[in-house]
Fold these 4 entries.
Entry 1:
Amino acid sequence: MSDATQPAATTRRVDPVVSSAVLLPWILITCCFALWGFANDITNPMVKAFSKILLMNNFQGSLVQFAFYGGYFAMAFPAALFIKKTSYKAGILVGLGLYATGALLFIPASMMMTFWPFLAAYFILTCGLSFLETGANPYIMSMGSEETATRRLNFSQAFNPIGSLMGMFVASQLIIARLNAATAEARAAMVAEELQQVTAGDLAIIRTPYVAIGLVILVFFLLVAVVKMPHTQDKTHELDIGGTLRRLFTNEKYIEGVVAQAFYVGAQIMCWTFIIHYGTAIFTAEPYSMAEKDAETLSSYYNIAAMILFCSSRFICTFLLKYIKPGALLMALATGGFGLILGTIFSQGIVGLFCLVGVSACMSLMFPTIYGIALTGLGEDAKIGAAGLIMAILGGSVMPPLQGAIIDVGRTVDEFGTVIEEFGSVDLGFMTLPWVNASFVLPLICFVVIALYGFRTHKYHLD
């Protein structure tokens, strides 16, 4: 065959995931994923820390999570409207500014030595995180072709667990391990001057990492402000809030997704927040009989192990999505989480702690899977619909205080407020169950709701 009769060679242009034209903006915005991961996971152990330092019960201490995730709920919808009316860059700058402000407010809060200023600081900080999450995800997707948008976002999201691990490490090594070893009982017995000195020292330890991250955020604020960012905001669509909300509220798949997301975030925060309580109850009892401070430090290592498992499982589950429909995989993961939580409740001792760590493997892909299922097919409504899924983070605000209240049922104090027993038990007739174990009935319920959403998605909605 002559050259003239041979088919002409064709070449297919392959778009890069991140082009050189937007490389610097992409790096800066991707760093934001790690920065909000740091804030999320340095905060979970603070429930136990504040309860101990300020002589509060577990319900009061868990108000940290109420303030923290309440900021996400309060600001998600205003953030979506602000970004749609202005630009992604403006929204991210507002987010970074609020993040830095909340972190630096730990300076006056620690000097006041009362709880409510810390709650205010957490709330302001997470209003900033709400702006960042609402803006950064779609902004990253817009920095290139639609064909590579998902890969580009997944690449950026990979930095979020790195920030989370850093936050857990700082909480474990630079906060929990350095707090005064005095137990709540010993603190309650101190004279006022001694207690004030110990409290001030511990609050200064908590303050330092938050102030440091606040200064880092200010640097990023300046960098984002001066670096030229790609202007990808869509100005061609009129803002029709009423029509958008009517369509969203009549979309069963979306509404069920918001509910499932709220229960997922609640389950995640409860499992990661109270793993230290669970481990401390085990390691301070026989056969370990460790000092409370040592038990808390050791338990924080299990928290880090849970995050490492979470990160590893995310890659595995992402691979499985090539072969398993999203709803079916979500249902399988939730069923696995349900079984492991049963082990957490009824397996007293180190086996129960292993089960609690193992739950993180099942939670790894739940948030993005629910997110993707709920927004599929919404078109332009997805821009406002995404804010509803961020608002669903409210589950992480409401449920941890409820679990803390259940744990407090087993907490015994005398008429002077001195803790006699930190972790009591309930007699079920066929077995005696520590209240900290029984409290995990709340994550158990959460996984039932998530499994139902996975089932309905697989059966009716999408798969």
Entry 2:
Amino acid sequence: MAWILIVFLILLGGLIAPFGDLLGTRIGKARFSILKLRPKKTATIVTIITGGFISAISIGLLLLVSEEFRQRLFVDIPFLQKTLDDSKKALIPLQKERSKLEAKINEKEKELNKLKSDVKEFRSGNVVIKRGQTLFIAEINSNPNIKSDLGKIYNTADRYVQKIVIPSKKEIKNILLWRPSDISKIEEVTAKNGSWILLIKSATNVLKGDNFVVVYPDLLQNKIILRKGEVITSEILEKNELDYRNVNSKVKTLLTKTSDKMRVRGSIVNEITTRGEFVKKIRDSLKNNKNIQYQLDVVSIRDSKPAEPIIVDLKITEL
């Protein structure tokens, strides 16, 4: 059926085309004019109209004879257009998600490159000092000879770090590299009345045998950050938690919270020192009564400054 229709359309076009050409030629010779146009242009327009007539008849016959053509023209094409529009709308959030994903990938690539760099440093030698590690701590009190005191601190820190990085070298040399602006800042701050804690930290990973260590300062005011008798952290021990495992867990949680809280206040001490055995003290209290709640308070037993030990005791209160 399709081949018959194609052959018919070819024959029909072949018959109508000469007719249109002949009609245009005769109109041209007859000097016929439409809308006051020149005869030649009129003949051209007639030829064009004839070609359009051929196309219209072809499409009309296709619509009349071919159900498949009608299906594709009036059903499939609008459906495909609607599907395309819906796909474009659905693509918008996906494009946004793709942008976010690409940003995350770029961030992870940076982290990976940094990790590779650190691994390379570790593999290329023995790392004896890590980036950000505190190398030296000194207490500074303001006085007229503050620059001389700072010089002695720098020299002492140099000798200490040299023993870590180049222990075999007997000759004393300046191994620490400072930024001049950091030195100026230390001198400016410590020249004011008061007491200060100077922390000298490493700016990079350092391998054993390196000739220099790049450092930067961290200057803290040497003031009391914790008072004697002050309650630092507290926890409630419920009735259903009065067994050894829960008690031990509560104590660990209390000490972790205490350590975190003191770091926020400015303490540079890594560990909390406890007086007595916390767990034993709680268990002894529980022997008297296990049917009530208890409040556990971590209490400071002395005044403490940033570089001084944090020593605490446990206070147990029945609720």
Entry 3:
Amino acid sequence: MIITLSPSKGQDFAEPAKTKKHTTPVALDDSQLLIKELRKINSGELQEMMSISENIANLNVGRFKEFKTLFSTSNAKQAIFAFKGDVYSGIDLENFSADDLAYAQKHLRILSGLYGCLRPLDLIQPYRLEMKTKLKNPRGDNLYQFWGERITDRINKELVKQQEPVLVNLASNEYFKSVKPKLLEGRLLNINFKETKDGKTRIVAIFAKRARGMMTDYILRNRIEKVEDLKKFKQGGYKFSKADSDDKQWTFVRPQPTK
């Protein structure tokens, strides 16, 4: 089983990672091609292209200029510890053992506009580059064209190693559009999380993000290998809803909390 997650806009490079173990992103040469294009863009252009504030644009112009290889723990940080946000708040990294991290390294892949397909312990440098960004590059007019089939190919190489060749998609639509479902060499299972309130059941973005992190945590810490075992997931009050699910998409539902 392979899990896909989105990255987060929020990042923390001040707090040291819990482990010194690290790897290098496999598509770093591709990342450098993107950095070359990003360095041609000034702050005002970046602000407009990415719909961000002037301060964030200035920050990232500086980041692109400072980007350099070789990566080390002195200028980069392991992805799973660098990303901060609603999704990652659901992953209890403080209590992860070395074995938990080793298992995550084999089963979790984080989709990234700059890095492509990241393993949890891959080192990254600070950046902001959402997958939907319309950045002209040598391969096209946007990042989907830039990555093409590369991310799918990387996932396929991981699927063949699994007990069950199943991709459990916990990434957002924006990021999972970088994967080509028809080219996957295994089963694709999309996961939804819904809230019930006043007799209506719907997806609430902030709760869905947290739930993706909770399910990721559940899979990794329980060493889930068989997809059917995911139906036992009950963290946060969610329960598998057979009525709202089919072979391609499973839905977990709970009463909507107040916060």
Entry 4:
Amino acid sequence: MDSADILIENQSRNTFENADFSKRVLDSAGIKGPYLLITSAMHIRRAEKVFVKKGVPVQAYPAHISALDFPIGFPAAIIPSINSLNSWENLLKEFIGLQVYKLTGKA
């Protein structure tokens, strides 16, 4: 692959800006979609909605899939531990982020 084939968007600070700036880069290059959207599995739902709303047709592909060596049950999810706090923090961030993006018309 030639380095000229790689387009970089490096100005965004969040998902909404990334979709906006990426659309500008792709439109100016005259490249037609659909495009492959690679992002963390936890973030993929919000990212896909934002890109589609911006008019960027994407095929979402999850990365950074968290795997557990054992199935997590209800007690493990609510008993305080570093793992459960991290999981809840990530889940709440994405849930609240998606709701805010919907309310503000970004997704």
